[in-house]
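pinging the channel bc i need a second pair of eyes. not urgent but kinda urgent?? the chain im working w is below, pasted from the shared doc
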Amino acid sequence: MFPFSLIYAMVVYIRNFMYDHGLLSTRRFKTPTICIGNLSVGGTGKTPMTELLIRNLQAKKRIAVLSRGYGRKRKGLVMLSEDSTAYEVGDEPLQLFSKFKDISVVVEADRQKGITYIEKELKPDLILLDDAFQHRRVTPSFSILLTAFDSLYTDDWYLPTGDLRDSKNQAKRADIIIVTKCPSDLSDTTQAEIRNKLDPLPGQEVLFCYFAYEQQLKGFHSKMSLKDLKEHELTLVTGVANPEPLVRYLEEGGLHFEHLIFGDHHYFTEKELQLFNSREYVITTEKDFIRSRDKIDKLSYIEVRHVFLNNGLEVLSAALEKVLGS
């Protein structure tokens, strides 16, 4: 597949060259926009990062989220409502809508069209662009680039040989680069080594964070914690890009489980659902729970959050305050 990756790399290079030199047009909108994205396909924790921003900004700002709604079956622009399903709008947008009742969530592949609708109909103070770093037709007010600790974009290669969907040099467009899924005890020395590898531009911050998993289950077994399940045989079901951090967390916690692995955004078949329903304890990720919560009888999920190392959250908050003026 390597020759195809070279063709892909050339197409990406030409596209970025045309945007960088004004041969293709981009648009900046009046409403402040924060882009959360990556250079690779999946697995960096974009949705939990969007949740973190919502938690830290919703008290001061009326927020709207614009997402492509990857994997959804309904086309065109859709504003999420209580009747929306993951099948229609995508699991990640529905997860955000289900957790945060005071925000608006819109799905639209055409980001310009989506923002235009949001500005006209919703008039928010802030728009979060979920997974939009590679969408050059919109120039955001602030860009957050995520890269996973165990899969830095500097060590990657283009699709389909690797996981890169954009050029490594496009990291220059980020205001802040966040290395996600780090060990919680990541040393200052290793942080410095990663900074050197990423080689940020002057004034471009590099921050580090790790995944913190909740002990208390949510969903069917909401009155139980993971510790309560140590003596039971569990079934872990994952349909995400990189389940390894969760698997490692459960193993380190001394839990015994079978792991049923599916592709990212996978919609479970009737046969698969019958298998899950034959198990006593089925646990999954929050994104998988959103897709299957009405189809698996005894399903629980483990919530996850980003936690910054050092003073990373304060650095991010201060940078956002400059953009948002508060």
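so The first helix runs from residue 2 to 20. and The chain is about 30% helix and 20% strand. — does that match what u expected or am i reading it wrong
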